[in-house]
Amino acid sequence: MERKIGTVSRGVRCPIIRQGDNLAKIVSDSVIDAAQSEGFELRDKDVVAVTESIVARSQGNYATIDAIAKDVKAKLGGETIGVIFPILSRNRFAICLRGIAMGAKKVVLMLSYPSDEVGNNLVSMDKIDEAGINPYSDVLSLEDYRRLFGENKHEFTGVDYVDYYSQIITDAGAECEIIFANQPKTILNYADCILTCDIHTRARTKRILLEGGAKAVCGLDDILTSSVDGSGYNEKFGLLGSNKSTEDTIKLFPRECKDFVLETQRLLNEATGKHIEVMVYGDGAFKDPQGKIWELADPCVSPAFTDGLVGTPNELKLKYLADNDFKDLSGEELKEAISNSIREKDGNLVGNMASQGTTPRQLTDLIGSLCDLTSGSGDKGTPIVLVQGYFDNYTN
């Protein structure tokens, strides 16, 4: 009998992870236990995905605000620092901002508007239009912003981030000035030592600032790239991808974890005889239609994965074949024609009309997004996700 189920995504529970735990063994054992408990079989080309949070926890990759402050001061001078384009997040940025402010005498905070990089609104676009403001060119002082837009609380958190970030800076002992602008070079009118906090546009922002004459430019990815007084660190991403742990501690994005995914793959193969792909995932790459928030606040969806997850899908669009190539067929004859097309498809369908409408994204971005939605970010307690049938097609 032919299989009637395609892709299945399962959240898998495991013990609470602590620093020093043998995570590869815990993940392998948890997946195998889940299969036995729920009565399903593991198969070749299954994908086991592990959230970055527990990988970083097992590495003990944490840092204090004191470590952030010391590194910021060493790299940007400790006087007036322009801090530009942060996202509006208590979890992602607020604790980092405390450390940054502790490493400066004055912070000129430049917020993008009407929203941050990932879609959190400071003010609605409708209000921008009503005020006759051009966000691409107009620079607003805090007084301008309040006069035009008053107090604006985040739709989901109820926080006025302008007040919130201002209070964090002053509580840390630094003077605070806030401006609103979207052109990176604007900050050079206020400071020449700049910390740019954007995520996916950071390389361009750094280039513009250096070409504009900045004395020193760092991104969040340049802070805590090595240990400060024994702190955690991330050589590639620095503070990018970090999360709040306590009121004065952050959990960093996991360090190099290719060895972890390879070891997990080996253990699973040893226990099951199956070739199972393994990846680490963070934020998914999708956008919320209500709040307009783009979920991807991590620097990438997957910092490490096994080789079988390299590349993009190579798929035919079944409805295109049914409506065009085989429009005169039906029933078993149509099924067989489409199946033959799939079996005989080229290894690269780029530009082929029969593949239009399929998603030309990296496999790890697609699967990581599925896993992020499956595990959630709350109390489900499933930091491991097993995806089965993802590489199946109509012929399997």
Write a concise synopsis of the structure shown.
This protein is of the alpha/beta class and 396 residues long. It is built from twelve helices and 14 strands. The protein is globular, with a radius of gyration of 24 Å.
The helix content is 25-40%
Extract low-pLDDT stretches: 353-357
Give the rounded overall mean pLDDT.
90
By secondary-structure content and strand pairing, the structural class works out as alpha/beta
| DSSP E strands, number | 14
- Widest sheet, order of strands: 6-7-5-4-8-9
Distance between the termini: 11 Å
Shape summary: globular
* Biggest pleated sheet: 6 strands, mixed
Which radius of gyration do the C-alpha atoms yield? 24 Å
The tally of helices reads: 12
SSE ordering: EHEHEHEHEHEHHEEHEEEHEEHHHE
The percent range for strand residues is: 5-15%
Explained architecture:
- The strands form three sheets. The protein has a six-stranded mixed β-sheet with strand order 6-7-5-4-8-9, sandwiched between helices. Strands 1-14-2-12-13 form a five-stranded mixed β-sheet, with helices on both faces.
- The chain is globular and about 70 Å long.
- The longest helix is centred in the first third of the chain and has 16 residues, at 23-38.
- By secondary structure, it is α/β, with parallel strands linked by helices.
- The protein contains twelve helices and 14 strands.
